[in-house]
Write a structure and sequence with these properties.
With 172 residues, the protein is of the alpha+beta class. 26% of the residues lie in helices and 41% in strands. The chain has three helices and seven strands, in the order ααββαβββββ. The chain is elongated and about 60 Å long.
Length: 172
């Protein structure tokens, strides 16, 4: 493999990794346009609760995320296999959580662990998810979570994102 081919391989893998990071980030910050930019609109998506095209998936998943007052997605470093100059397969593990305030004033949610099985396509020089299957491996309850006020004994700020356009969000 030539040096030029090796550099292109690294650039392609980096671009795919950045799409995956953007996926998590745009969910957490409720950035609908950023979330849509991760997928080709015709990409088949299978999350179990949703099976269909990415264009139809985006409003569904963003509605689920908006139902949590706090959310957090973290993905592992992906394994990426290039299948040619414009196709790749990727797999990574992920943690996701959603926390919300109950009617009784307590905060709780769940922590989910799973894996993303993705196919990527590069169209007109841009990599995006061309097919995705999500598999949930486990779930843990998260009871007695902190509310919106910092703990006076250890006053870390609490970030609550309940709508798009949070003032701390930066497009990266």
């Amino acid at each position: 493999m030539t040096l030029e081919a090796k550099v292109q391989e690294l650039l392609d893998k980096q671009a795919i990794s950045e799409v995956l990071q953007r996926y998590s980030r745009t969910l957490d910050w409720l950035d609908d346009a950023g979330q849509a930019s991760c997928f080709w609109p015709d990409a088949p998506i299978d999350y179990g609760f949703f099976t269909g095209a990415a264009a139809d998936f985006i409003p569904v998943v963003m509605g689920i995320e908006r139902a949590s007052q706090r959310r957090w997605h973290f993905l592992s470093t992906p394994s990426i296999a290039l299948r040619g100059p414009d196709r790749a397969s990727a797999e990574c593990y992920g943690f996701a959580t959603g926390i919300r305030e109950g009617e009784d004033g307590t905060w709780s949610g769940g922590l989910y662990g799973g894996r993303y099985l993705d196919e990527f396509e590069k169209r007109e020089g841009e990599w995006k998810i061309a097919a995705r299957r999500y598999i949930m491996d486990w779930k843990l309850p998260l009871d007695d979570q902190p509310g919106n006020e910092p703990n006076p004994d250890f006053p870390l700020p609490v970030l609550q994102i309940i709508a798009s356009g949070h003032p701390d969000y930066r497009v990266i």
